[in-house]
Design brief:
Length: about 375
Amino acid sequence: MANVLVLGGKAESLISFRGRMMQEMVAAGHQVVACAPSAPQKIIDELFELGVNYQPIDIDRTGMKPLHDLRSTIKMIKLFKAIKPDVFFGYTIKPVIYGSIAARLAGVPYIFSMISGLGYAFSNTGIKSKIIGVIAQWLYCVALGFNQKIFFQNPDNLKLFVDMGILNNNEKAVLVNGSGVDVDVFYPVPFPSTISFLLIARLIKDKGVYEYVEAARIIKQRYPEVKFRLVGFIDNNPSAISEQDLKSWIEEGIVEYLGYLKNVKPAIEDSSVYVLPSYYPEGTPHSVLEAMAMGRPIITTDTPGCRETVVDGKNGFLVPAKEVTSLVKAIEKFIQKPVKIEAMGKASRQIADDKYDVHKVNSVILKAMDLI
């Protein structure tokens, strides 16, 4: 039996992204402690029901704040020494970097990390992101040197880490199919009577929000009855969309804004097709997997992390990033031939079952960590 510590940057993700993994660790006889900042009582209760204990930890998941990050790392070292885990597992950039360093300094024997996306630091959208990228690259080199295994959610991210010299030992790398999706919780449901499209994302430019809205504007001029819905929140990110833009889209009637939803299932159920025109450095977008599991065809970009979810022409369409014209054409294919929606939706569900079932994904992770 091992004492396992799982560290994330956002409390809600402990349940949505890592809940089943930790539940399977507990079922295998291990003790599990989950750490993240400021978990609400509901999350703590849900973790307890899974057999997982919760410990709060101070991490600012966004921004480069050296003094705050140093203080957080020192606090982590103290916490890890008190908990005495045998195994550390971190995901997202700061838990991976500072968590791995803290785990090494605290004497944790086995350290593992998941690269669940590269984020703003690798977006190359301006001088600031490039500077942060250089710093992040150096920090990754240090932190991942302490890891026994590093999990990657797509082959492009793995190749990038090798090409940049962050990862020198390919034997440490394990490729997994994203975080997986619980196909028992997200299951196929009937399509709505009116054709509708849906985007769920943090409302930042790099998620393709502007391209989605512009495509919706063009389509609604031709097919005013078609609906476009948007779910998400304006994130604390340099590329966040403005509240004024969001307000103007709503007033113009281009999109129906549903706000931030903790439970996205009703929104997916009310959609015909899921759209993610992202050019953000993704791992594997979880919202796409949820939509696939619910039997929805996908339109997404031919970019790292996104392209792995779609067999073009089978369960949806791949479009070039930042190309509104191509996005409009893909959307229009479903409007002009609605029969494609059901057929491609079935194919999405089959791919979710075969490739992205969370139990299959977790089996690969736990085996690599020698926890089963």
